[in-house]
Amino acid sequence: MKSKVLAALLSFFLAFAPAAGAQSAGAAPGRPLSQAELDQLLAPVALYPDALLAQILMASTYPLEVVSAARWVKQNPAITGKALEDALQKQPWDPSVKSLAPFPTVLAMMNEKLEWTQQLGDAFLGQRAEVMKTVQVLRRKAHEAGNLKTTREQKVVVDPQVIVIEPATTVVYVPVYDPRVAYGTWWHAAYVPYYYYPPGYVARPGVGFAAGIVVGAALWGGCNWRGNDVNINVNHYNQFNRTNITRVNWQHDAGHRKGVPYRDPAIATRYERQQAADEVRKEVRKEQIEDRAREAPNADPPGKGAGPRPRDRDRDGDGPEKPGRRGDRK
Q1: Would the N or C end of the chain have less CB density within 10 A of its end CB?
Q2: pLDDT score of 320
Q3: For 248-283, what is each residue's pLDDT tens digit?
Q4: 276 Cβ contact list (under 8 Å, min separation 6)
């Protein structure tokens, strides 16, 4: 067992040790996005409810799984409610991606604008504080322009530092708007944001809403505005995903990245190293389990239950009687 573990550890450190003078072909250090680029990137979703926005930010770090989920939802439009929740348990996607299945127009947007989705995810991983601050600046502009206010679909809470957007009821409405006008006259001529209208939606001035959706525990994300991060409502998360987690902080899982390269080499190194370390830990645990099974003196082979031995069955009267034993006594 020790030799296998050492080999795994050696492979891990060799794979991620920096080679002298080596540089990845065509990989320049990823520069941070400018404020103009962040404004452009976040404008299409900055006016979404906090919980939905948080889950979009998380899910955008797994662009290939977003594509898979969008296609699956499109192929299964009749699966909704509890049936959808049950069906999602069988899918291999990250929980943040699964949580968007009740919002088919959101998944469709992320799938159609896949380059934007990947850029959003990379910005969230590499510049999380700037991303969260940019959302607040954009919300402030929309509020000042008269396009962000409490309605029958949403509750908007404005204080001097933070603007919070929540569903007004248990029904969640996804806002629909043209970001070129929702924030007032757009201020970056070279960085104009895209806009997305769901099929069949009739455009209107300001901010409108798509059809409402009752999603229940699927909305488990949250925004920690003062900490410039996202978090998890563990009660909703556990109910929707049928798990039992206790941590409220969200952590990116590189295993769900499916080989999509990270924009920033430093981010790539961090998460690829983390993924490799996870694989080593899994191998170590596997070896430990196998060693314990081998060392147990009377252990049954894996998968084989321990049942009574033949002598025990005869002694207990479950087997055939033998001459000279209790069946011959008078």
Answers
A1: C
A2: 47
A3: 999 999 999 998 999 888 898 888 766 555 555 555
A4: 12, 15, 16
CB atoms within 10 A of CB 109: 22
CA distance 26 to 62: 23
Distance CA 107, CA 110 (A): 5
pLDDT the model gives residue 280? 54
Q: Report pLDDT for 222.
A: 96
**Nearest alpha-carbon partner for 117 in 61, 77, 179:** 61
Distance CA 54, CA 42 (A): 12
Judging by beta carbons within 10 Å of its beta carbon (0-12, 13-18, 19+), is residue 58 exposed, middle or buried?
Answer: buried
Look-up: residue for tokens 């002298």? 20
**Six-digit token pair at 301?**
């082979």
For residue 182, the cross-strand partners are 184
Q: Locate tokens 């209208």: which residue?
A: 197
Short-list 142, 208, 134, 152, CA closest to 177: 208
Q: Residue 268 corresponds to which tokens in the numbers above? A: 């790539």
- Residue 64 phi, psi dihedral angles, 5° rounding: -70, -35
Q: What is the dihedral of CA 9, 14, 18, 20, to 10 degrees?
A: 150
Query: How many other CB atoms are found less than 10 A from the CB of residue 201?
Result: 14
- Cβ atoms 186, 36 nearer than 8 A: no
pLDDT attached to residue 127:
96
Provide the residue ranges of all domains of the chain, joining segments of one domain with +.
32-263
Geometric angle at alpha carbon 103, from 268 and 255, rounded to 5°:
25
Q: For the chain, which residues score pLDDT lower than 50?
A: 1-29, 306, 310-330
Residues in the chain: 330
- Mean per-residue pLDDT over the chain, rounded: 82
List residues bridging with 158 in a β-sheet: 163
Within 13 Å and on the Cβ side, how many CA atoms surround 46? 30
Q: How many CB atoms lie within 10 A of CB 85?
A: 21
